[in-house]
Amino acid sequence: MTKIPINTDISPMVGGQIAVVQRRTLAVLSVAQITSGVGVAVGFAFSSLVVARLSGSVSISGLAGTASVLGAALLALPTARAAGRSGRRTGLALAYGCALLGCLITVVAISVRSWPLMLAGLVLFGGASAGSLASRYSATDLSPPGHSARHLSWVVWTSTIGSVAGPNLAEPADHLGRSLGLAPDTGPFALSLLAFAIALAVIVIGLRPDPLLLARSVAPASAPAATVPAARARGTLRTAWQALRRAPAAVRALVAIAVSHTAMVSVMSMTPVHLDHGGSPNWVIGIVLSLHIAGMYVLSPLIGWLADRIGRVPVLRIGMGLLLAAAVLAGTAGPHGVTQVSAGLALLGAGWSCGLIAGSAMLSEAVPLEHRPAVQGLSDLLMNVCGATGAVAAGVIVGALSYGVLGTVVAVMVTITGAWLTLRRT
């Protein structure tokens, strides 16, 4: 067994010094989350519309969201691998750097009127989402026992600011871009580029000392993390599977995260279509989705505190219960039942938040320190793949059957998962 060399640039710290560094880490990650969240929300809100204009096809416009999700999935493991080798700062810098490059390609693609090139840019644009997901794990590296869920939840909560503000900035950014001589429709992506550049600078300059490297340097010599084979500490997919085989709790957390995200994306993605069939105007659909986003993020600190207080598995079971209630409420609502659908979507967001926060904290604590970036990267990869698959499957189900059948399928899925979590708990 070869010991991983400890970063000699970081002197060991104890007690209060670690707490000071952790507070700084949370502040830096929060600022980066806010700025990158603005970039993601602006680009995501405008991308489908621009692709439709460039291609002249509504069907092709749907590939815009798919490209971003695909990019987040593809960049999850490279981000984790970089973090495993050189620390969280390097991993997050890679993710946001790819997003910045994606914005540049997108601006060029719009200028030359090429929708295939724009889709390629949007794949790299997904790096911002990969970085956002990785940031929540970065918040737990230096968390004291019993506090990782609430620290993680705080970083998740700060995503609310960017997610809410971003879409409202798309149109002003377009007008500003035109006034500055940019091609039409490039303004929002120029704003995203600026937001990602700020996030990248905040991470590179502010995330010092690196939380993961510092956690390794102060880890007890007898801890499992100090004696893992060097070849396995590089964030590889093989490393993640090996670690999961030895950590049943991590497997439960991984399944809970994947199921929660699949349930949320599948119902959320088809709700605008369902309400549109009932004649709901766009502003009503926008309010329903805003309530859903509020459910996803606003209660994050409370959910994090609860997960630290009563345990991860109980909060995961609560999350499955909320997702079940959401599926029943939304699934049994007719196209005109805006109030009932709104309540269902709010519960859907809260259930997702329980799964993400409690599951992520449980996953991080269940594996040794040196294996965490690899397992966390695998978690984000599966989460994005399941989300994309869920959206596609939801479209097929609603198109062939109905929105109510989709609600039934989701209800069965989360019920089985909740029962499995209860039976498998040790």
From TrEMBL:
Membrane disposition: Multi-pass membrane protein
Keyword tags: Membrane, Transmembrane, Transmembrane helix
The keyword Membrane belongs to this UniProt entry's keyword annotation: yes
Subcellular location: Cell membrane
A single GO cellular-component term on record: plasma membrane
Protein name per its UniProtKB record: MFS transporter
Organism, as annotated: Streptosporangium minutum
Organism domain of life: Bacteria
Entries under Gene3D superfamilies matching the protein: MFS general substrate transporter like domains
Any coiled-coil regions, as ranges: none
Pfam families from the UniProt entry: MFS_1
Transmembrane segments: 26-52, 58-80, 92-112, 118-139, 151-169, 189-207, 249-271, 283-307, 314-333, 345-369, 381-399, 405-423
InterPro entries: MFS, MFS_dom, MFS_trans_sf
Lipoprotein as UniProt keyword: no
Limits of the Major facilitator superfamily (MFS) profile domain: 248-426
Main location: membrane
UniProt xrefs under PANTHER family: MAJOR FACILITATOR SUPERFAMILY PROTEIN, MFS PERMEASE
Gene Ontology molecular-function annotations: transmembrane transporter activity
